[in-house]
Amino acid sequence: MTRTSLFPVEADPHVDTTRVAVSTVIFTLRRGAGSEAPRVMLPLVRRTREPHEGRWALPGGWLDVAEGLDAAASRTLAETTGLAPSYLEQLYAFGAVDRSPTRVVSIVYWALIRPDEVAAAGVFENTEWFDASALPRLAFDHNEIVEYALWRLRNKVGYSRIAHGLLADQFTLAELREVYEAILKRRLDPANFRRQVENSGTLIPTDRFRTGSHRPARLYRYNQDVELADRGPLGIRH
Amino acid sequence: MTRTSLFPVEADPHVDTTRVAVSTVIFTLRRGAGSEAPRVMLPLVRRTREPHEGRWALPGGWLDVAEGLDAAASRTLAETTGLAPSYLEQLYAFGAVDRSPTRVVSIVYWALIRPDEVAAAGVFENTEWFDASALPRLAFDHNEIVEYALWRLRNKVGYSRIAHGLLADQFTLAELREVYEAILKRRLDPANFRRQVENSGTLIPTDRFRTGSHRPARLYRYNQDVELADRGPLGIRH
Fold first, then answer.
1. If you write DSSP's letter for every residue of chain B in order, what string do you get?
2. What is the tens place of the pLDDT at every residue in A138-167?
């Protein structure tokens, strides 16, 4: 598969203009070999041009003049990674004067995606998945952007949203707890976790059980009545 | 006092470029005559040029190429309204293709400001305060932006933040409740409200009382240990 170049250098750095770019932080979980705990991962794209040639950067590109912000985020994400999440949420606009050799305001989106959706996207040249807690030095201010997205993930996302965004349709409470442990980077007490989830009203127990080497564990599903993301009063999409 | 023009028409609408603007939604409370309940108000600026000449618009202007986003929001707000809140929080980037005759991405900020700060700013030509729930048809998509800001205000802001942003340093629980009633547009049960606030840990009772026509009411103050706003892990300001 091919993709268009990120941040082509056709812009003259001496021209007194501001350009608008979009970038996306998209998180998934990946489980290592054996029983290793899942880790929060995100895709990065290796830059093939200056500035920061050779460095890893968030998927993204320039906003087209005839294209909305959401559409630009979806397009550039698909072109660089093949990923097409059902919903991208706007995270923040980054516009520090010195964040790039030319003046660039980046509208950053974020999303969660399930491991099976990642697998379906295939393999893209110059794109790799990284452990969010062990990143190299990225291009521009992208390390800072990822930190901000992780902070938002830790603080904002509720139980049901995690379940919907990162897990399969049905999952055990232990699997859900592992998601939380991966995001929060700490162990959670299983009994307390079970109590909190059951009190939240966001999960519905099914009649099915996961069987295996441990005792059977009940499968839960996400309560579809709970809204996945805060879209605002208008279901706003700009 | 003078101010620079908003959105000067020097941009050629036929040029294939995107420009970046900043706008600010800044809310305060204003009490009418007598015992009338306070209302959520915001300042608007009458446009003196096309497009939308004569319509009211949010305070704002173009991003300067050598200026950060926060700085641009503060500058344009001060130039058009004289207001200088201690903290502007980024709200959302609005970038629909058809929101302006030329392509404009607006980074919108929001803030709360106390009535005494409003009074200190003085009077600016072409600037008036409007009841947020009874706006005329505004320029561009600014009605939609205000709706989004009101939604954020209703959903996100906690007790202590309201107290800090809209009230004087010391206030009674009845005054605080009126703030909530103005924002939520509904009456709240006084006893329930008192219980919720006392349980929140965000207010500290003082030894002073407000006296007047009613029985003396204790004054409370904001707990300074509670962070005013979500600035992210880095106290991020771009």
1. ---PPSS-TTS-TTS--EEEEEEEEEEEEE--STTPPPEEEEEEEE--SSSSTTSEE-SEEEPPTTS-HHHHHHHHHHHHH----S--EEEEEE--TTSSSSEEEEEEEEEE--HHHHHHT---TTEEEEETTS--PPSTTHHHHHHHHHHHHHHH--HHHHHHHHS-SEEEHHHHHHHHHHHHTS---HHHHHHHHHHHT-EEEEEEEE-SSSS-EEEEEE-TTS-SS--TTTT---
2. 999 999 999 999 998 887 666 566 667 888
Which of B16, B90, B155 has the CB atom closest to A93's CB atom?
A: B90
| Structural domains of chain B, with CATH | 18-156 (3.90.79.10), 159-222 (1.10.10.10)
**Are A68 and B96 a contacting pair, CB within 8 Å?**
yes
Nearest CA in chain A to B18: A65
Q: ipTM exceeding 0.90?
A: no
Instruction: Tell me the one-letter amino acid at A160.
Output: S
Which residues lie below 8 Å from residue A200, measured CB to CB, with a gap of 6+? A158, A159, A160
Chain B residues with CB under 8 Å of A235 CB are none
- Determine if the peptide bond prior to A51 is cis (ω within 30°): yes
Q: What pLDDT is recorded for position B206?
A: 95
Comparing alpha-carbon positions, the chain B residue that sits nearest to A155 is: B232
Determine, for residues A147 and B233 on separate chains, whether the beta-carbon distance falls below 8 Å: yes
How far is residue A31's CA from residue A27's CA, in Å, rounded to a whole number? 13
Q: The whole model's pTM is what?
A: 0.83
* pLDDT tens per residue across span A5-14: 444 444 444 4
Residue A71 C-alpha, separation from nearest chain B C-alpha, in angstroms: 10
For A42-98, how does the pLDDT look when each residue is reduced to its tens digit (9 = 90+)?
Answer: 999 999 999 999 999 999 999 999 999 999 999 999 999 999 988 799 999 999 999
Which strands make up the sheet holding A203-210, listed edge to edge? A170-172, A217-222, A203-210
Residue of chain A nearest B102, judged by CA positions: A65
| The CA-based dihedral angle spanning residues B9, B10, B15, B19, taken in that order and rounded to the nearest 10 degrees | -80
